[in-house]
Write a structure and sequence with these properties.
With 341 residues, the protein is an alpha+beta fold. It has 2 domains: 111 residues, 60s Ribosomal Protein L30, Chain: A (2-Layer Sandwich), CATH 3.30.1330; 187 residues, Phosphoribosyl-aminoimidazole Synthetase, Chain A, domain 2, CATH 3.90.650.10. The chain contains 10 helices and 13 strands. The strands form 2 sheets. A 7-stranded mixed sheet has the order 8-10-7-11-9-12-13, sandwiched between helices. Strands 1-2-3-6-4-5 form a 6-stranded mixed sheet, with helices on one face. Helix 3 links the parallel strand 4 and strand 5. Helix 2 packs parallel to helix 3. The longest helix has 17 residues.
């Protein structure tokens, strides 16, 4: 008899989730990719030259600019399959207290404008006032299309492939803390200019990977892509290896941590490698293409760096620390940012 699961904030433990997913039966043979750890979107075969790609995700930490967040975090997972986002809908749950016309109209406007910027059509959803909520919650659902020959799956990574990271890490976590924890930062004697820089991580370097994912997939044979969300970059790398049945060797000094995330890590005692990081993109490519992919991204003003290599599963998941020592790569499905919420 299996021990009872101890639940914590954030994602389910991978083993427990894998057990749950193993009981799901695919009833329709048109499903190319269904529920699987590391695969963040479903793929369905439809008549013609394209696959239909479907994604759903909530926003649970952020409240400020929540409409912008909800579109982008769904777009990120969908474009990691190589698909272009097309149709968006959302379920918007609002608290009994503090819901105003300004709040509602702001959310609707943010969703509409963000979708419009990426030529996504809002096709519907549901909105209600919900009991026992202390802040707005939104669950998004996004559909898109990809040419069948350009489909990218997380499970596509193979031993010997290079692993590239764009922008750096702790991007989403930085803007969430800046927007949700301003008073705490002021108490730590950080001025408004620092807080504004943290808030602006939403846009620069930005939580969207729309540009780099579609750009890389247009010009190269991409083996796999993944968007580091809850659990940060190390959990995302682990998910890539689980999906592809591989291991990985990572050089920690190659992972970019920008100035504001470094400061926030110290203030709140957060491990930046395990903190929510939408805006970063992990790309697996054949080693011979790695430098060319990096050159393409950099020419388009997207910071990128090869941070490691996929290896055979038996070699495990390891990291070379900045001090030169090698160790097992430690990750957690529970995001570091939950410590402060």
């Amino acid at each position: 008899m299996r021990n009872k699961e101890h639940f914590t904030l954030g994602k389910f433990k991978h083993k427990y989730l894998a057990d749950l997913l193993s009981n799901l039966e695919i009833q329709d043979n048109r499903v190319i990719m269904g529920s699987k750890i590391g695969e963040d979107a479903a793929v369905i075969d439809i008549p013609g030259e394209n696959y239909l790609v479907v994604k759903t995700d909530p926003i649970t930490f952020a409240t400020d600019q929540i409409g912008y967040y909800i579109v982008n975090i769904n777009v990120n997972d969908l474009v990691c399959t190589g698909a272009k986002p097309k149709w968006f809908q959302s379920t918007i749950l609002l608290p009994e207290e503090n819901t105003t016309e300004e709040l509602v109209e702001g959310i609707f406007t943010d969703i509409h404008n963000t979708c419009k910027s990426m030529r996504i059509t809002v096709i519907g959803g549901h909105t209600e006032i919900t009991p026992n909520l202390d802040r707005p919650l939104i669950i998004g659902s996004l559909l898109g299309e990809v040419k069948k020959e350009k489909l990218v799956l997380t499970s596509g990574a193979e031993p010997g492939d290079a692993l590239i990271l764009t922008k750096g890490i702790f991007i989403e976590g930085t803007c969430i803390i800046g927007r949700e924890k301003q008073n705490e930062l002021l108490k730590h004697n950080y001025d408004l200019s620092f807080i504004e820089r943290c808030k602006n991580y939403l846009y620069k370097p930005g939580i969207s990977v729309y540009k780099e994912a579609l750009l890389a997939n247009k010009h190269f044979k991409i083996k796999a892509m993944h968007d580091p969300t809850e659990g940060g970059i190390y959990t995302a790398i682990a998910e890539m290896t689980i999906a592809s049945n591989t291991g990985a060797y990572i050089e920690e000094k190659k992972i970019i941590i920008l100035p504001e995330p470094k400061i926030l890590s110290k203030i709140f005692d957060l491990n930046p490698y395990n903190t929510i990081s939408s805006g970063s993109l992990l790309i697996a490519v054949n080693q011979k293409d790695s430098s060319n992919v990096i050159d393409l991204l950099r020419k388009n003003k997207i910071v990128s760096e090869q941070i490691g290599t996929f290896v055979s599963k038996d070699k495990g998941l390891k990291v070379k620390k900045s001090n030169g020592k090698k160790s097992l790569l430690k990750y957690s499905e529970t995001d570091e940012i939950t410590k402060i919420f």
